[in-house]
Amino acid sequence: MSVEATLDPSAAAPQGPGGPLLKLSNVESYYGPILAIRGISLELARGQIVTVLGANGAGKTTILKTISGVLDPEKGAVELEGRPIQRMAPDRVVRLGISHVPEGREVFPFLSVLDNLRMGAFPRTDRDAVQRDLEKVFGYFPVLKERAHQPAGQLSGGQQQMLAIGRALLARPKVLLLDEPSLGLSPLLVKEIFKIIRRLNDEEGVSMLLVEQNAHIALETAHYGYVLEVGRIVMDGTCRDLMKSDDIQEFYLGMKQDDDRGTRRWKKKKTWR
Ligand SMILES: Nc1ncnc2c1ncn2[C@@H]1O[C@H](COP(=O)(O)OP(=O)(O)O)[C@@H](O)[C@H]1O
Ligand SMILES: [Mg+2]
């Protein structure tokens, strides 16, 4: 491998030294009798951003809930640094190093911004380091410092997204799970938030699993990607390769082609079902 290829994160494969940080093998989860995700296998290497792309209802949130222990899988394994964590209680999963930024942010609206952030540090006893991390979060999101003493419910959608990310970072996670951070935000704010997401990865080395409907921004931000359709992974590759794929361009990036419109290549090849 050339030096250039080694230095280029978008060329990196999902495996890192010492095995994947997070690994899902054949995971299957239900809501009562309803099968939501099936045969989900994916890997996140240390230091990477991996994205899962999928339309509304594809199962993106279900994957994250299964990892964070909110939902117990019926089958399969979830491993953090080789250790099985499936069916563990959510607070234990946080203590082991996985923080979840949920869909729709879910900040505590009547608590101050500062108290919301402090909630994120609940598993920690190293108070001085928490204070330093708080300052670091304020460095990335200065508006949170300006509004530290306001109720979180008074923040705009974008600011609440920043707060939800900041709160998750205060647990000092090994893995950050991000559920559609672009949802409901203006294109300009989406750009701003994803720039910070990328910086947190570059500068702090935070590994992330990012699920998104917004394929444009997710493929620009992540290193490696999986495509989820109706609860199954139908395609994966480096984001650079996925961006070049005809199917991704046509169905996820909205770039029209004159010929062959309406048929997914992976369905033609019968690589699934
Ligand atoms: N609480 C629930 N009860 C029953 N079905 C659910 C529930 N949450 C999600 N589902 C179903 O599971 C599937 C996957 O949902 P979800 O993971 O939320 O998709 P996404 O996050 O990709 O939009 C969908 O068919 C959805 O209707
Ligand atoms: Mg969702």
UniProtKB/TrEMBL annotation:
<dbReference type="GO" id="GO:0005524">
    <property type="term" value="F:ATP binding"/>
</dbReference>
<dbReference type="Pfam" id="PF00005">
    <property type="entry name" value="ABC_tran"/>
</dbReference>
<keyword id="KW-0029">Amino-acid transport</keyword>
<keyword id="KW-0547">Nucleotide-binding</keyword>
<protein>
    <submittedName>
        <fullName>ABC transporter ATP-binding protein</fullName>
    </submittedName>
</protein>
<dbReference type="InterPro" id="IPR027417">
    <property type="entry name" value="P-loop_NTPase"/>
</dbReference>
<dbReference type="InterPro" id="IPR003439">
    <property type="entry name" value="ABC_transporter-like_ATP-bd"/>
</dbReference>
<dbReference type="InterPro" id="IPR052156">
    <property type="entry name" value="BCAA_Transport_ATP-bd_LivF"/>
</dbReference>
<dbReference type="GO" id="GO:0015807">
    <property type="term" value="P:L-amino acid transport"/>
</dbReference>
<dbReference type="InterPro" id="IPR017871">
    <property type="entry name" value="ABC_transporter-like_CS"/>
</dbReference>
<keyword id="KW-0067">ATP-binding</keyword>
<dbReference type="InterPro" id="IPR003593">
    <property type="entry name" value="AAA+_ATPase"/>
</dbReference>
<keyword id="KW-0813">Transport</keyword>
<comment type="similarity">
    <text>Belongs to the ABC transporter superfamily.</text>
</comment>
<dbReference type="GO" id="GO:0015658">
    <property type="term" value="F:branched-chain amino acid transmembrane transporter activity"/>
</dbReference>
<dbReference type="InterPro" id="IPR030660">
    <property type="entry name" value="ABC_branched_ATPase_LivF/BraG"/>
</dbReference>
<dbReference type="GO" id="GO:0016887">
    <property type="term" value="F:ATP hydrolysis activity"/>
</dbReference>
<feature type="domain" description="ABC transporter">
    <location>
        <begin position="22"/>
        <end position="255"/>
    </location>
</feature>
